[in-house]
């Protein structure tokens, strides 16, 4: 692998990652309770 190819930025590398069944609902409910949820530094911890 060439260095230029190996150093290309990619998003998480989960091309076949399937989200869990209730994750969208949990994110929706959390955003309904706190609209600024994804604007904080702790959004992953809060979800």
Descriptive report:
The protein is mainly alpha-helical and 47 residues long. It has helices at residues 3-6, 23-33, 43-46. It has a domain at 19-47. The chain has three helices and no strands. This is DUF4007 domain-containing protein. Residues 11-47 form the DUF4007 domain.
Question: What's the structural blueprint in terms of helices and strands?
Answer:
Elements: H1 3-6, H2 23-33, H3 43-46
Q: What descriptors fit this protein?
A:
single chain, 47 residues, mainly alpha, 40% helix, elongated, DUF4007 domain-containing protein, DUF4007
Q: Cα-atom Rg, whole angstroms?
A: 16 Å
User: How would you describe the shape?
Assistant: elongated
Based on secondary structure, the structural category is mainly alpha
Annotation, overall tally of beta strands: 0
Describe the largest sheet.
none
Helix share, percent = 40-55%
Calculate the mean pLDDT score and round it: 73
- Stretches where pLDDT falls below 50 for ≥5 residues? none
Brief summary:
InterPro entries: DUF4007. This protein is mainly α.
